[in-house]
Write a structure and sequence with these properties.
about 220 residues; mainly alpha; 8 helices; elongated; disordered N terminus
């Protein structure tokens, strides 16, 4: 059977097609029906994508994730002195938004341009880098701006626990992104956020529980 990417008619057949709607994906249609399906569109795009284009896409995803990490470090800061609102931002809203932002670049690609991701390991690599960048920027702010006189123990805690938390939660999120991408790549199914969402929620919950513990321990005078 000829590779789909080698069929000249496919380029015209799918030109301008949205990635969400294909007649061939409708339930009840026999597999032999001669109508376009997402799996055909994806394979045609995958076969027509050069490695250099994938490399640029991964670089762009890394830069976007790093930029999002910079912005994310400031999300909860304005609310930390506003009582109940600050507590809500620290424990729920902040972690949820931050976890999405740390993988924003590769999540977009997995959902809208999955053929640009070379393998399922790239979301993991980008998430790890983004988590590290996020932790580093956050530590610079906490150590030099928010709490400049806390001493060596505070600095050591920030540079150990902080990176561990942010990398771990980013990796949890990336597992969901990898699962979403892998199903599209192996089965030809349209990208579905339902596969990534539970992992994004899990990452936000872990992050929120950490922040809650930090707030409680600080209020008790233990840290």
């Amino acid at each position: 059977m000829a590779d789909l990417g080698e069929e000249p008619a496919l380029g015209a057949r799918f030109k301008g097609k949205p990635t969400e709607s294909f007649v061939g994906d409708e339930p009840g249609l026999p597999e032999s029906a001669d109508v376009p399906a997402y799996r055909d569109f994806y394979r045609q795009k995958r076969n027509g994508t050069k490695p250099i284009h994938q490399s640029f896409a991964m670089l762009a995803a890394m830069l976007l994730s790093g930029l999002a990490a910079v912005i994310g470090t400031f999300i909860g800061s304005p609310f930390t002195t506003f009582g109940a609102l600050g507590f809500l931002a620290i424990v729920t809203i902040g972690p949820a938004v931050e976890e999405v932002m740390k993988i924003a670049g590769v999540l977009y690609l997995a959902e809208r341009r999955p053929w640009l991701i070379p393998s399922r390991y790239w979301p993991l690599a980008i998430a790890t880098l983004s988590g590290l960048v996020f932790a580093a920027i956050e530590n610079v702010l906490y150590i030099n701006v928010y709490f400049p006189n806390e001493g060596a123990d505070f600095i050591a805690l920030r540079w150990t626990v902080g990176p561990a938390l942010h990398i771990t939660t980013a990796v949890i999120s990336s597992i969901g992104v990898s699962r979403m991408w892998a199903r599209t790549d192996t089965e030809g199914e349209p990208p579905s956020m339902s596969l990534a969402r539970p992992f994004l929620i899990a990452a936000a919950v872990v992050h929120g529980m950490y922040n809650l513990a930090a707030v409680v321990l600080e209020a008790a005078g233990l840290i």
